[in-house]
TrEMBL record:
Domain (L,D-TPase catalytic) ranges: 84-220
One GO CC term, this protein: extracellular region
Protein's pathway: Cell wall biogenesis; peptidoglycan biosynthesis
PROSITE patterns per UniProt: LD_TPASE (PS52029), PROKAR_LIPOPROTEIN (PS51257)
Keywords, in A-Z order: Cell shape, Cell wall biogenesis/degradation, Glycosyltransferase, Hydrolase, Peptidoglycan synthesis, Transferase
Organism: Stappia albiluteola
Protein's name in the database: L,D-transpeptidase
Amino acid sequence: MTKTFRIDRRGFLCGGASFFLAGCTSGMERQFKLPVSPQNDPYYLSLYGPLPDERFPVPAVDLKKVDPAYYRRVVDYDGPERPGTLVVDTPNRYLYLVAENGQALRYGVGIGRDGFAWSGRARIAYKRAWPTWTPPAEMVARQPELEKFRNGMPPGLQNPLGARALYIFDGNRDTLYRVHGTMEEWSIGRAVSSGCVRLLNQDVIDLASRVPNNTPIIVRPA
């Protein structure tokens, strides 16, 4: 039996109810009301607000540093992938969690810079909350200042893997690429990392809560 995948729209949209109700004002009030920019939209301010209950409390995202096109949202999706699949649209800097009924949950991402980009079909072998980051030997060779982290950098807000990491395997082989969090808001929508796919910490926490181990992932080439 095929297991269907549904986005919990109630959980995803719950923060928006008050915003929509707030829009039910009289014609006179609407006449003098200035439009709310996405950066000041109460819904997105709630979606990307602080997470004080995390092991390392996560501060609110400065939405002025993120293009609104990369805010998390439910979108129409007409790709051929089965529900439950992760799809990284490298050229457009999006990650999709495919749902049924022609929809997907879309996140903005930062991707690998030229020379370090990776693409292909693989799986999320496992996930880690507040992971240790261990730079590959070849990265240490390129950047000697990372020698002190050869055996691992402890978790925390400054750890390059952020609040969550999803480990990408090709069969039983670790590709050394990850889907992970970041504190660097400005990097979303850009090609900056060493091949990994980075999301805002609020987004990667949400994503990790939705996908089980062995979730298939497709990274489309640039």
